[in-house]
Design a protein that fits this description.
By secondary structure, the chain is mainly α. The chain has eight helices and two strands. The protein has a two-stranded antiparallel sheet with strand order 1-2. It is elongated, with a radius of gyration of 25 Å. The chain binds zinc ion. Zinc ion (ZN) binds next to helix 3.
Length: 258
């Protein structure tokens, strides 16, 4: 028997000893055994990066421990020491790591927030463009009613897609995200319906009035961005405000000029 009973460890550690070291400078507690096991099972007891799959494992916090001060399933991923070091050095960025976590399937609540947020940004972008096209069609020198009808239906479709995207983000995010997303959606609904009613552009408005309405929207968009970044534990430079909006899920009808 290798150990006298009194000193025998209850059970061997599941992952690299470093994770369990009680003498870590920031006094972090050990990862609970069941959590470690859940994470290893999630990754199939291999490095979570699919092309690596090494079998010596450590547990890495996606958002650094120093920020969250907590061990939780969604923020932790099983990596081999090499991938872990590359991640710590920034060779693998945190957006990618969040994506690897999402691809493991069972976790990824945070990755869902991010993808719902990006989907909503893309949907808002397309909806906004469709509203602007409708407004231009209304004030054209020779209004083309067929074109206006098409522009309206595009606008309605984009509104529906945005509504779904907002609902997804609201269910993935927290109360603050829900509130701000709702506000932004309402702002767009107001813009879209006044355009359909031909009350926008409102030429009785001064430039200042128009700018202050736009500023309210911009502030809400920025607030949403900061709240999402904060929830994910991303710094401003790690989560760019704007990435390429995803392409429209449906092709434009043939023969439209835009
Ligand atoms: Zn690896």
């Amino acid at each position: 028997m290798p150990y006298p009973h009194a000193f025998a460890p209850a059970s061997p550690p599941l992952v690299s000893a470093a994770v369990y070291d009680p003498a870590m400078p920031d006094n972090r507690p050990a990862v609970p055994r069941q959590l470690a096991r859940d994470l290893l099972v999630e990754a199939g007891h291999r490095c979570a990066i699919p092309t690596c799959r090494a079998t010596t494992l450590e547990l890495a916090h996606i958002t650094p421990w120093a920020k969250t001060r907590a061990h939780d399933f969604d923020n932790t991923i099983a990596l081999c020491p090499i991938c872990h070091t590359r991640f710590d050095k920034g060779e693998i960025d945190r957006l990618s790591m969040l994506q690897y976590k999402a691809e493991l399937g069972s976790g990824g609540a945070r990755a869902r927030v991010l993808s719902a947020y990006r989907t909503m940004q893309g949907a808002l972008d397309r909806w906004g463009k469709s509203i602007a096209i409708l407004a231009r069609a209304h004030v054209a020198f020779a209004p083309d009613f067929y074109f206006i009808m098409q522009a309206r239906s595009t606008c309605e479709r984009e509104a529906g897609l945005t509504h779904a995207a907002v609902a997804d983000l609201q269910s993935a995010g927290d109360d603050t995200i829900e509130l701000i997303a709702h506000f932004i959606y309402d702002w767009f609904i107001h813009w879209a319906s006044s355009t359909v009613d031909m009350k926008w552009p409102d030429y009785s408005q001064s430039r200042e009035e128009r700018n202050s309405e736009l500023n309210i929207l911009h502030e809400a968009l920025l607030e949403l961005h900061l709240t999402v970044a904060d929830l994910l534990g991303f710094g401003f430079d790690e989560l760019p405000f704007w990435e390429e909006p995803p392409p429209s899920p449906q092709p434009r009808p043939l023969g439209t000029a835009y």
